C-alpha cells in the first residue's frame, strides 16, 4: 500500500521517520530552501500561501503525487493513536506506516475527531470568527456551480461540530475528486471577495473556508470515514484561546 501524507512546513521542525510522511516546504516561492521538497516546484499555487495556507501543499500534491492514499497533516499537528501529555510521548503516538495500513485497509477516508462548538452552529461560528462575506460568497458559488451540494452545505452549516484543520487521508480517487471540487470552488470565491484590508490572520480566508467544505463534500458524496485523534505537538494556551473565542462570539470580530 503506497501512502503519502504531506507534512506542511514553513520552517525546519521535527519530523516522523516513517516513509509515508512527505515533508513539503509551503509558501516557498521567493524563500530560501531548508532541504526538503518545495511547493513552488512544477505546477503550483505557492504564492497564494498567505491566503490558502496549507492548501498550497494539497494543490501541489494533487498535481505531483501518485499514491494509493494521499493526505495532509501539519508540522505541529499529527494524527495519533491517543492523546498524551508529554512531548516525547506525543511524538511516539504519531501513527506509523503500519498503523496507517491497518486503518486504510478498513476505511477509505480518515479525518480528525470532530471539534464541537456546542453553543453555536458552524455558520454562526464562522460569522463570529471571520469576515462573513467569504462564507456568503462560498454559498453563492455552490448554488450556481454545485446546486446538488446545497442541501449538504445547509446541513453542515447547522451542525455544532466539524472536522477541522484541512487534515485527512483519502483513497486516491476520492482525493482527486475532492481536490477538483475544492479548488474549483475556492478559485471562484477568490474572484468575488476583496480581501484588501484584511489582517494577516483573516487573509487566510481560503484555508478557513476549506475547513467547512470537507464536511460538505463528504456528506454530499455519501462517503464513509473514520475519525482519528489529532495531537498538537506544542502546549496550547487554552485560557487565551477561550478568551479569543468569547471575544469573537460577543463582539463579532469577524464581521464588517
Q: Number of folding domains? A: 1
The assigned CATH architecture is Alpha-Beta Complex
Query: Oligomeric status of the shown chains?
Result: single chain
Largest sheet: 7 strands, mixed
Describe the secondary structure blueprint for this structure.
Blueprint: E1 3-9, E2 21-25, E3 37-38, H1 49-52, H2 55-64, E4 69-74, E5 77-79, H3 87-93, H4 97-104, E6 109-112, E7 115-116, H5 122-129, H6 132-145, H7 150-157, E8 161-162, E9 168-171, H8 172-192, H9 205-220, E10 226-228, E11 230-232, H10 238-251
Parallel strand pairs: 1-2, 1-4, 2-3, 6-10
Antiparallel strand pairs: 4-9, 5-11, 6-9, 7-8
Helix pairs in contact: 6-8, 7-9, 8-9
Question: How does this structure look, described?
Answer:
By secondary structure, the protein is of the alpha/beta class. It has a single domain, classed as Spore Coat Polysaccharide Biosynthesis Protein SpsA, Chain A. It has 10 helices and 11 strands. It has helices at residues 49-52, 55-64, 87-93, 97-104, 122-129, 132-145, 150-157, 172-192, 205-220, 238-251, and strands at 3-9, 21-25, 37-38, 69-74, 77-79, 109-112, 115-116, 161-162, 168-171, 226-228, 230-232. The protein has a 7-stranded mixed β-sheet, sandwiched between helices. The termini are far apart. Residues 238-243 have low confidence and may be disordered.
